[in-house]
Amino acid sequence: MKKKAITAKDFKVMDGRFGKGVAVARALDAGEPMPDAVRITASSPEQFFTTMTPKRMELFRLTRKCAQSIAELAVASRRDRSAVARDVSQLEGLGLVRVVDQPNPGHGRKKVVEPVARHIEVVTEF
Length: 126
Description:
The protein is an alpha+beta fold.
């Protein structure tokens, strides 16, 4: 049986995985939010629930499943496209989603809504 020497190059595949874990651990140790997380701070629970209405939460949940256009979100949520566009604008202002302008073959362009973070932390005081 032939022996093979293991070198640092054999562990290159793991660099990305460990690097992300180290970044998350360092952020948590420093009391910062996780790198792929968003922290929303509200002065009161009422302020948070005024901003994050049930309709906006539904849009956010749909977006987290997969990136969708505003028109697709309107159909999935059974709402008017202009109302969905307004709510997406609010979610974008909170930093929860981003809107990317993409080509729509044969129809010009479309705005695709995608989530910014996997984790959301809400901080409020009672």
